[in-house]
Amino acid sequence: MRATRAAGYRPRELYERNPQLKAVIDLIANGTFSLDDRGLFHPLVDALLCHDDYLLFADYPSYVERQDEVARAYSDSERWTRMSILNVARGGKFSSDRSIREYCEEIWKVKPVRITLD
Length: 118
Fold this sequence. Notes:
The chain is mainly α. The protein has helices spanning 2-6, 11-17, 19-29, 42-50, 56-75, 77-90, 96-108. 8% of the residues are buried.
């Protein structure tokens, strides 16, 4: 991210050079998604074209590639099912309760307080 910024990141240039990205932004800008209210998303479009603080335009090509991969995987129902099952199975360690407990113990160094309700 820093290297991209240091190299003189100019989102408008990416917009002008990438016809697919330009088409997407133009759809947002021309009111397609806002019941023909062209001004509704003007602040968003302006922020992306002039600032793009999160370098979204720089990431756009890789985003499209990943979405294409997802579409290919989804079109193969056996592959998609296998991936879905493995994803759920591998997510077993995640638990919001466990995460909060670990944060309390390892980062914040706080102990639980027992509360009794009458």
